[in-house]
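Researcher: First entry.
Model:
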Amino acid sequence: MAGNTTLTFQNLPEFLRILKLIVEGLPKELEDKAANKVAKDWISAARNKASGSYAGKAASSLSVGNEQGGARITSNYPGFYGEEFGGRSRPETMMFPPHKGKRGYFLFPAGRENSDKFQRVWEAAIDNATKAWK
């Protein structure tokens, strides 16, 4: 029959040992190390991109929070969303820069500009977790 494939394992215990190392190591590499590195690098890039005193305060309030499955970028600055996305559609948001929709002013543009760098961090984490396979 077409499409049938037969796999033969010469050393099944060794294969299972390596597979176990990958299954245990991959979440740790991705969730703990890579996620935190990407989040910290993203925050650093956003802080460098923020212009103006209020945007600078909003960017400097960014921090990395750990959560199950990765990292989270958080801010405790009350005007963070206004500084990042803008406002001016209502009287109470006139202190923010003009609304830019989902484009953002510093956090999201920094993420887009550094996406290749972040991708390399993720790929390195996968390579590190699967190095027992090689």
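Researcher: Second entry.
Model:
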Amino acid sequence: MITKRRCPHTGIVNFYGKADPMLAVGSVSEGLKPAQYIWRSYLDAPEAGVAPDILVAEAHLRDAIARAQNQGLL
């Protein structure tokens, strides 16, 4: 199970796993250009990318987390 919380100060959306709900396993933030969202996975096999929409960025991040779970990295 993955939960997410938006930081009210930075606007970054952090994603947390069930094993340690206080340690972020990934995040989505706004890029410098309009309509650019950067997603990052912080797991043993880190992944990152850029998407034109926040929902697409979140979907890419969830896929990366799911891959890590399937490989036993989470």
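Model: Note on the second entry: Residues 4 and 15 are 4 Å apart (CA to CA).
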